[in-house]
Amino acid sequence: MKKIALVTGSSRGIGLAAAKELENAGCQVIYHASKVSDKLLAAAGNSPFFGVDLSDAEAVGTFADELISQNMVPDILVLNASYQSYTGIGNFAESEYRKMFDTNVLSTGILLNKLFPEMQKKNYGRIIFVSSVNGVKPAGRLAVYGATKAAFQNLARTANLTLSVMELMDSPVEMEKTQISGTGTQKNDLSTSLHIIGNDCGNCRHHAGDRSCYGQFFQFAFG
What we know:
The chain has helices spanning about 15-25, 40-45, 55-70, 95-120, 145-160, 190-195; strands spanning about 5, 30-35, 50, 75-80, 125-130, 180, 185-190, 215-220. By secondary structure, the protein is α/β, with parallel strands linked by helices. The strands form 2 sheets. The protein has a 6-stranded mixed beta sheet, sandwiched between helices. Strands 6-7 form a two-stranded antiparallel sheet. Strand 2 (about 30-35), helix 2 and strand 3 (about 50) form a beta-alpha-beta unit. The chain is globular. It starts with a strand and ends with a strand.
């Protein structure tokens, strides 16, 4: 039986690449973007997809409930989607501040709160937090975004303390080849698919030669 993988923010960039790698490895991928668009439709093809604004807490809760009711609880949850704007300490609007925190932090909490117990019932799970170097290395023009990513990473680390069934893998290079096929014979190197080493991953401007994205990835595994 195919593993189900939900990749948030999978209409482009790192999320799209990860979704395609998971499909190639035999997973049934659920695609997501903030809204239904031609880009999302093209990315998903014949796969299921959802347009959900992650800054809307009620919509996120409804999204998770719909996955559960439709028997689409993911075996693999890639928390990739985020919202970023150039906002420093002294030049942000309250609405932008709230949108970044709601999208990057609150939505993560809601999805974990609703989906993790259901994943546990399946006795198998992979949860991948896709973060950013800005979570540990502040940048003046990304002050608020960096704060959301620091909170996001802290949530991942706290989950590791609280959810003792999980194993934390602390950096991109340490991410293991994760068994995700139904037969248990096929493996996929998510560190490669998420880095997209040497390629252009959408809006990322950090590729040079064989350098990879300035990202940080945290993976939990159980089952």
